[in-house]
Design brief:
The protein is of the alpha+beta class. The chain contains 2 helices and 5 strands; from the N terminus they run E-E-H-H-E-E-E. The chain has one domain. A hairpin with a 4-residue loop joins strand 1 and strand 2.
């Protein structure tokens, strides 16, 4: 499950990033939670999968656009959707 004190639970693998919180931090936290480790203990850094600054800029500049970004990170498929609220889904890779 991806819920964390700073994330609103939406579904089994989906969470909503609250306003003012960094989407990249939420991604790392969600994956670490799935792994059962602290975020700093992850072997793969987010920047190895995607440019964190570019992702943050996309999400912040298109909050109501329906923008969907998907990428693989640390053995998971991460999907970020900006449709009025920003949603982060972390799922096992198929």
């Amino acid at each position: 499950m991806t819920s964390q004190r700073s994330v609103c639970e939406r579904g089994a693998n989906e969470s909503e990033v609250r306003a003012g919180e960094d989407v990249t931090t939420q991604i790392v936290t969600a994956v670490a939670e799935r792994e059962g480790v602290e975020p700093t203990a992850l072997d793969t850094r987010l920047y190895e999968a995607i440019d964190p600054d570019a992702l943050t800029t996309l999400v912040e500049n298109a909050p109501d656009s329906g923008l969907t970004v998907g990428f693989d990170y640390a053995g998971y498929r991460v999907t970020v959707v900006a449709d009025g609220r920003t949603h982060v889904e972390v799922a096992e890779k198929a």
